[in-house]
């Protein structure tokens, strides 16, 4: 643990990310909508859809339906910032999720959904099973989890 933040150090984790203690995660179903006419509405939806290809390696469910994606923003330079968390700050497979995110967002025929991206790992509020979408719950039940 770091003395100043109380968060376990993790390779690839942005330890300088602002804590979001007072804000509730919005979840995939209620990600913020960009201003009308900004041209970014489709981009945010495209990023969210592409993130469904990123699968938590321990649970086998995509990170959107698992409720790990708290926010998505797309800047005018076509760079996406994804605020997301993990089921545990001690997750040993962070690099797998980062690699899948890179593939989902920046590769494909004719390029990617965005030109660049940044994952902002956040730990507050902590993830819990209540953040799983109904689709995610159905997927977990199909895998034999009781939820």
From TrEMBL:
Ranges of residues in domain MIP18 family-like: 45-114
Domain of life: Bacteria
InterPro entries: Fe-S_Maturation_MIP18, FSCA_dom_sf, MIP18-like
Signal peptide: none
Gene3D superfamilies, sorted: Fe-S cluster assembly (FSCA)
Stretches the record annotates as Disordered: 1-45
Protein's recorded name: Metal-sulfur cluster biosynthetic enzyme
Organism from which the protein derives: Tamaricihabitans halophyticus
């Amino acid at each position: 643990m770091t003395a100043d933040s109380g968060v376990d150090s993790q390779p690839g984790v942005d330890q300088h990310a602002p804590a979001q203690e007072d804000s509730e995660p919005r979840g995939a179903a209620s990600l913020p909508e960009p201003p009308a006419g900004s041209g970014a509405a489709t981009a945010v939806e495209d990023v969210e859809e592409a993130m469904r290809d990123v699968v938590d390696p321990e649970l086998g469910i995509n990170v959107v339906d698992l409720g790990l994606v708290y926010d998505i923003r797309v800047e005018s330079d076509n760079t996406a910032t994804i605020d997301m968390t993990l089921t545990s700050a001690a997750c040993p497979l962070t690099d797998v999720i980062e690699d899948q995110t890179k593939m989902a967002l920046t590769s494909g025929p004719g390029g990617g959904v965005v030109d660049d991206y940044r994952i902002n790992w956040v730990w507050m509020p902590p993830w819990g099973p209540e953040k799983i979408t109904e689709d995610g719950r159905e997927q977990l039940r199909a895998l034999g989890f009781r939820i």
